[in-house]
Specification:
The chain is of the alpha/beta class. It has four helices and six strands. A six-stranded mixed β-sheet has the order 1-6-3-5-2-4. Helix 1 crosses helix 3.
């Protein structure tokens, strides 16, 4: 059975997981219909190491969730990373998937276990 979630709960889950990842340096939230393609673009254009789908749903729900997440991340204090979204979100084509792209500081990692600790383990929830 698919996990349904509200955008407020998804934000709290994502924030908690990102805070647990010690080496994260940059975070970006976006929407797309093709997470793999968008992740490749973020890697090539901005150097983000990972892009992960965090939610899916109706385009209007995803658009509202993107705006909500961006606003919350922009106003969240005491995080160890830079939040990289410049716009307020919600613009562009209607999309059905919400994602997070992130990068980490490899120079502070001492071993392979550090890399494994910085892999975002999150389900793709259905937003309602």
């Amino acid at each position: 059975m698919e996990k349904k979630i509200k955008k407020e709960c998804l934000f709290e889950i994502l924030l908690t997981k990102l805070k647990e990842m010690q080496h994260v340096t940059r975070v970006y939230i976006g929407k797309t219909n093709d997470v793999k393609r968008r992740g490749q673009e973020h890697l090539e254009e901005e150097g983000f190491a990972h892009t992960v789908e965090i939610a899916h749903g109706l385009p209007e729900v995803i658009s509202e969730a993107e705006k909500y997440m961006i606003n919350r991340f922009k106003t969240t204090e005491r995080v160890n990373w830079k939040f990289c979204n410049n716009s307020d979100g919600g613009e562009g084509e209607p999309n059905k998937k919400l994602y997070v792209s992130y990068d980490y500081d490899r120079s502070t990692m001492k071993c392979d276990a550090d890399v494994n600790d910085d892999v975002l383990d999150i389900d793709s929830y259905e937003l309602n």
